[in-house]
Amino acid sequence: MPKLRTVALVAGAALLTRRALRRRIQASPLWPMPALEEPTSGRPRSRALRLLVTSHETAADGVAQLRLEGSELPRWEPGAHLDVVLPSGLVRQYSLCGDPEDTSSYTVAIRLVEDGRGGSREAHEQVTEGMELEVRGPRNRFPLVEAPSYVFVAGGIGITPLLPMLRALPEGTDWRLLYAGRTRASMPFLEEVEKLGGDRVTVVEGRPDLDALRVPEGAVVYCCGPEGLMSAVEERFPEVRLERFAPRTSADGNHEFEVELRRSGRTLTVPAGSTVLAAVRRELPDTAYSCAQGFCGTCQQRVLEGEVDHRDELLTDAERHESMLICVSRARSDRLVLDM
Questions:
Q1: Residue 172: CB atoms within 10 Å
Q2: What is the dihedral of CA 167, 203, 161, 198, to 10 degrees?
Q3: pLDDT tens profile 38-77
Q4: Residue from 140, 143, 218, 225 nearest 178 by CA
């Protein structure tokens, strides 16, 4: 009996302690863990697939075309892209340019960027046939919408998300394509595009004359290519639909601001020339991130206070209301508070 009494006393004490601890957690957001909802950081936005590289070909000067094969792959619509994890672990986004009805493979084309951050060179020089790559997606933030007519503007590798759109347009659809590149030899899929569109396609070697671009009433304008081209098209046609694979810049520039990490009890300074992610990782080195360009969503964090200057190309309006991608987005205010 004494042993049973001891067991009962210990169990009772444990129950009281647990209840007291729960009350204390609810009363204090900083001890020993926050009384906030679970944060969203480090969440993969789609499941990863392991695909086999079955073809590595040259699509144009400086452009590699990869065929990635699997089985029963998720379907996609024109305008979709993949997150591709390169052998080094770098994550890059590439538009799908194959056949959406093919559930056995994905096709992407990659321009070699000589002065880039190394991803395109790795894809050109280190990705080989027979290698497996991890991909995530497909995801589509550049869908083809119904419209009475279309005007497409492509710059070089920017043809890749537009090509499946051209193939998908119903016969008789009114459309025009302005396709610009340094030289014809540098423009991927040029021969197919010209056969597909005939006199509806205007090919320009060098800088296109956008003042000569005629957009019919009610037409939807799509554009993908270098930032300079997209900015110029956006200036002339503010309703243009754009596909960016680099962080959006802000007309307001960058300024220094503070970030409070509410759960950690720390306040950081983010210089004008740095990022929230860099500042956070100096204090919390295990903070998850991947692409560092505002596309994959790995670094998404909940925002508790402050006004965010969103520069990503991923989050929905609802997600932007309460969170941000700390790799590219900044503060419009002088201070942000994050659930970290």
A1: 5
A2: 0
A3: 444 444 456 789 999 999 999 999 999 999 999 999 999 9
A4: 225
- Quote the CA–CA distance of 106 and 66 in Å, as a whole number: 8
Q: Can you read off the two tokens belonging to residue 218? A: 């009610």
The rounded distance, in Å, linking the Cα atoms of 300 and 319 is 9
Owner of token pair 């090509």:
163
Hunting for tokens 């009962």 — which residue is that?
Answer: 8
pTM here is 0.73
Q: Name the token pair of 306.
A: 């402050």
What is the spatial distance between Cα 220 and Cα 108, in angstroms, rounded to a whole number? Answer: 25
Question: What is the tens place of the pLDDT at every residue in 151-180?
Answer: 999 999 999 999 999 999 999 999 999 999
Three-class SS state of 149: strand
* Cβ 230 vs Cβ 246: under 8 Å: no
Give CA angle at 270 (269, 274), nearest 5°: 150
Q: Considering only CA atoms, which of 336, 136, 257, 256 is closest in space to residue 324?
A: 336
Residue with tokens 């647990």: 18
Residue 312 identity (one-letter amino acid)? D
